[in-house]
């Protein structure tokens, strides 16, 4: 009998979960969501991400990022239509920020970080490679994802594997059980509603909060990408720049403002974002200051932050249906996407084994995996 699954949510977490689940021919998958790739809405975080790989977890919590990197690397090397390219990434540290260590991207700024053995070409920068005002830094090879292209590519991969995708707005997660395109009740519901899990009935996770991120998308080129450990414009303002693949423009960031829901970009913040970027990297605007930036658009996205970190676990509803949760990825949803979706598949397989189903000869999730 097919294993009927309904995935709620079509951001990077939902689509990656659906894609890995769809590798098993015994799973029949429906994705239902209020927002789909192509939509631009404050309740939908995924289009607003940079998105690059800048490991943020501590070593002990690094599983999601460690398991994702090889697949993003493979896609970058072998699947150009996914819209990902390699970029050097430079991390600039100021001792005064690193000592405080309250920044949400903390572990990126560790000296001797765990990720130096994961990401290629890691090296510490010499003093003459640092912009004025920074005490140390490092460089490594990373990727930058054109989120508009990549989300459509993920959706296409799901459709190719037989996943059926529908629009629906759920008031309660229990409604998902009846939404499979097969007409059969779902055996498993996967909850990938991001910040939606704050208000979604049956979940209502009060520990979810937005980490507001304001950005400016410009047409200027930026090599390498860079991020700094802090700014002099207050605790909620950060500084990073990354050029998206395939003509996606360069994202200048930004802010990390916890608990703020405002969906409109603040023009004063936008000016500060651009000033900081051209100060740190004058070449970005051809030495012309912010006048030399070609603004494509301003953006605001809400990172789905959860007090105790991501929630990936299973839970049984009153009627016996299983929910697998996969939400609360804050600012690392892309760079942890395959690792988290792999765990979703493991949890679904565990449940099927408990029901006495044979799942041991299912296909490998990743072609690079031994
Ligand atoms: C400015 C900014 C920069 C970022 N940069 C990076 C980066 O460089 N690298 C990186 O890895 N990450 C980055 N992130 C984080 C990343 O964007 C998020 O972690 C990720 O997009 C979360 O994806 P998600 O699928 O969990 O949630 P979302 O993308 O928010 O998707 C949620 C889905 O659930 C649906 N949904 C919610 N509630 C309901 C309901 N009641 N009924 C039906 N459907 C519902 C929505 O419609 C949507 O389809 C950044 C985020 C921001 C805002």
TrEMBL record:
Residues 5-347 form the FAD dependent oxidoreductase domain. Pfam families: DAO. GO terms for biological process: D-amino acid catabolic process. The keyword Flavoprotein applies. The keyword Oxidoreductase applies. GO terms for molecular function: D-amino-acid oxidase activity; FAD binding. FAD binds at residue 193. D-dopa binds at residues 303, 331. One of its GO terms (cellular component) is cytoplasm. Keywords: FAD, Flavoprotein, Oxidoreductase. Its cofactor is FAD. InterPro entries: D-amino_acid_oxidase_CS, DAO, FAD-dep_OxRdtase. Belongs to the DAMOX/DASOX family. This is D-amino-acid oxidase. The lineage of its organism: Eukaryota, Fungi, Dikarya, Ascomycota, Pezizomycotina.
């Amino acid at each position: 009998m097919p294993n009927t699954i309904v995935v709620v949510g079509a951001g990077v977490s939902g689509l990656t979960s659906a894609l890995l689940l769809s590798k098993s021919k015994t799973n029949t998958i429906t994705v239902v969501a209020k927002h789909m790739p192509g939509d631009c809405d404050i309740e939908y975080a995924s289009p607003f991400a940079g998105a690059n790989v800048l490991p943020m977890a501590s070593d002990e919590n690094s599983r999601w990022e460690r398991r994702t990197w090889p697949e993003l690397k493979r896609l970058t090397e072998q699947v150009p239509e996914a819209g990902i390219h390699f970029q050097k990434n430079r991390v600039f540290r100021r001792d005064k920020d690193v000592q405080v260590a309250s920044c949400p991207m903390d572990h990126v700024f560790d000296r001797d970080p765990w990720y130096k053995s994961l990401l290629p070409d890691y090296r510490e920068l010499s003093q003459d490679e640092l912009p004025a005002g920074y005490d140390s830094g490092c460089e490594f090879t990373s990727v930058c994802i054109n989120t508009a292209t990549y989300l459509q590519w993920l959706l296409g991969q799901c459709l190719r594997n037989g996943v059926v995708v529908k629009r629906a707005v759920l008031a309660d997660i229990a409604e998902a059980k009846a939404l499979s395109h097969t007409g059969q009740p779902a055996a498993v519901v996967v909850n990938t509603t991001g910040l939606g899990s704050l208000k979604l009935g049956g979940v209502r996770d009060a520990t979810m909060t937005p980490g507001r991120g304001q950005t400016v998308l410009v047409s200027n080129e930026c090599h390498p990408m860079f991020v700094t450990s802090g700014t002099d414009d207050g605790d909620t303002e950060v500084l990073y720049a990354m050029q998206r693949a395939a003509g996606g423009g360069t994202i200048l960031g930004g802010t990390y403002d916890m608990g703020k829901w405002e969906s409109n970009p603040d023009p004063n913040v936008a000016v500060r974002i651009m000033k900081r970027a051209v100060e740190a990297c004058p070449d970005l605007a051809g030495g012309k200051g912010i006048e030399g930036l070609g603004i494509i658009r301003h953006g605001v996205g809400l990172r789905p932050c959860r007090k105790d970190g991501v929630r990936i676990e299973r839970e049984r509803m009153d009627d016996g249906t299983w929910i697998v949760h996969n939400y609360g990825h804050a600012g690392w949803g892309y760079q942890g996407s395959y690792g988290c979706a792999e765990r979703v598949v493991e949890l679904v397989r565990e449940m099927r084994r408990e029901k006495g189903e044979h799942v041991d000869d299912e296909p490998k999730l990743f072609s690079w995996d031994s």
